[in-house]
Amino acid sequence: MDNLEKLRVLLPHWLEHNASHSQEFSHWAQLVEGDNQEIAALLQRAAASLQAADAALREALHRAGGGRPGHGPHDHHHHHNLPE
Predict the structure, then answer these.
(1) FRET pair for 80, CA 20 to 30 Å: which of 11, 18, 28, 35?
(2) Within a domain: residue 77?
(3) How many structural domains does the chain have?
(4) What is the pLDDT of residues 16-73, one digit of tens each?
């Protein structure tokens, strides 16, 4: 498996993780908003940063010849240590 093939597996996985974490950060920002506006704003900023990173990851996936993440079945492996 060459490096581009590895990236076509890893990038959708990273995008899914980012989406999950971004949603979780936003959820927690809403939960603490009444208690601590500063922390809520930082969590929202973290969520926005992940969303911005996703744009670069999607472009990398496109340039690596991968499909559109989030469309179609979950067809990649969850192995962080891919074969050489």
Answers:
(1) 28
(2) no
(3) 1
(4) 999 999 999 999 999 999 999 999 999 999 999 999 999 999 999 999 998 754 443 3
